[in-house]
Amino acid sequence: MKYTLADKKNLFVKTDNDGKAILLIKSSGFQVFLNKMAVYILNIAKSYSDTDDLMGALCAKFPDVDKRLIQNDLEDLFCIMNVYGIVNFDLHETNNETVIIDDFVTIAGDTEYRILSDFILKKCLQNKDCYIQVSNETYYKPISLRYHTFNNSEYYFMVFRKGLLSLVIAINPPGLNSTVYNISGIFFPSDIDRATIDKLLKMGIDRICNEYAGRISKIRIALQNDEGDLLKSAISHLHFTKECTLLSENPNGSLSLYAFFI
Which helix or strand (DSSP H or E) is residue 66 part of? Predict the structure, then answer.
């Protein structure tokens, strides 16, 4: 896969005597700790623009090391570098093969945070029909999404339609002695029709139920009384039940709690 590295002027590398290093990203202040192999990969990556060529150079340098180990090190490093914006991949690279991809759902991890961030920020954040509890763009930067997941505060279920990310469900895991998972966000672009939203939302809910089978009793969402009709229609089709209404719950008015019982 083709790749480009970030402007080296935005990076500062401090190498220790043992060959390990700290990589500082000047624009954000983030620090990435690198082992010796990662330091070497980062240094020679500047001389290439394709991961296949880079992999070939690494295998030639370390002929006695299992190629699978080298491949894993390269993939792990590039995933982290991609999250931090140090490396960018050419996602429009194509070949002559025709690939048919079914609809599927996956949970966001290191290989998806950049895609997830771009999807929310560029296609969804301004869509008034989405269910958005946090409108701050920084909250949806790749490194922030990774932080939320690593700290078990929010998980992201990404629903793909014909290979393209089309809808995301963000959930908060339950607290101690609770089996209720709360939906904290539903993101989709404005050009998706209601029937497709219903289908994709059902796929996401089904995956959440399967992922936490035995640990989940219901999935809850809290909607403002004046929240968009599209979302209310979608959760109604999924058989969410209105549990209660909390009067004057916040400055915007009352909240209604809806639950999908497992």
Answer: none
